[in-house]
Amino acid sequence: LKNEFSTALNEVKDQSSLVNLKADFLGKKGKLNNILKSLKDATPEVRKTLGMKSNQLKETILADIEKKMTALELFEINERLKKNWQDITYRSSLRDQGLTAAGYHPVTIIQREIEDIFTSMGFEILDGPHIENEYYNFEALNIPDTHPARDMQDTFWFKDMKHLLRTHTSCIQARGMEKRTPPFKFIGPGKVFRCEATDASHEAAFHQLEGMMVGKDISVANLIYFMKTLLSEIFRKEVNVRLRPGFFPFVEPGFELDIECLICGGSGCSVCKQSGWVELLPCGMVHPNVLRHGNVNPDEYNGFAFGLGLDRLVMMRYGIDDIRHLHSGNLSFVSQFKTF
Ligand code: FA5
Predict the structure, then answer these.
(1) What are the binding positions for Mg(2+) in this chain (predicted)?
(2) Phi, psi at residue 241, to the nearest 5°?
(3) How much is the ipTM here?
(4) 223 lines ligand 1 (CB under 6 A)
(5) Are the CB atoms for 193 and 160 separated by under 8 Å?
(6) 287 Cβ neighbours under 8 A, 6+ residues apart
(7) Which of 30, 55, 119, 201 has its CB surrounded by the most CB atoms within 10 Å?
(8) CA-nearest residue, atom 18 of ligand 1
(9) pTM for the whole thing?
(10) Could you give the 3-state DSSP secondary structure of residue 329?
(11) Quick check: 298 and 292 in contact, CB under 8 A?
């Protein structure tokens, strides 16, 4: 019976035949039971030995069937995979099936372009946590506890009143400085959060791109050079900008670099609040207290920093007249910016 089983097992090619084979040998009316039934007239000794042997055989058959079942399952999965195999990196195959390839979000497209511009000028790219503590968001940036500037940015605080969702990417300055010795220069793009009402140019979650350069004898002229390079590379055409004094506790002097609104051409619209100008790129020379917090000696080194409003830059570049489109999740909106 053992040999008979082995031959039959070798011929089994799929799971259902295996189930049948099992019934054939071990089922109620199966071959093994038939032998056991025929033992009822045998002597007690014969019954005992044959009984033991048939139990052993039953165990062997069960083990073999289990092994074969696992092998068949694997085989069948592999066969199915071979038939349904699809190269999802092969775009035209997706297009053939009516599926369109994904694209980058416009904020990502512009962020990558800016990263390329700055890395080509020797800047590093840094990241930082969205959940910050109040030291890096305020204290290290020369905004002590009682300073009214804390109210300039409406903050989402955690219950412990020690942690918060970062209100600007300037925390990346504070963290970046700690781990470096001058000279250094880096940018830090990312999401920031403010408890603000939304309108055509304001969101509660938006993107900024921080920049910082620290070294010897850095001047406002250096700062303006980098800002101009950034804008001319992004727009590839003359854009009207204006520089005016701006107050931020972490820079001195501080500036606001505004761009003439490209949605209305400067005549006034909801994005520029009828002013013809959009606040885009605040910047300035790093305050000595900020350098000190970053273990940089302000008598030896100085530097500049800027905090670009990335969503607004994207709006100006593509002529988007409401920031809320960017976060709408509307596929027909974002698919206009496909890069491939
Ligand atoms: C800051 O956040 C400073 N940390 C920038 C800075 C960095 C100054 C380094 C000096 C040196 P401000 O709050 O103005 O500054 O925001 C910077 C830019 O982010 C604005 O010019 C604007 O373009 C953008 N921005 C601000 N609030 C919003 C908002 N609610 N929605 C969309 N964009 C915003």
Answers:
(1) 252
(2) -125, 160
(3) 0.99
(4) no
(5) no
(6) 142, 249, 250, 251, 252
(7) 201
(8) 309
(9) 0.74
(10) coil
(11) yes
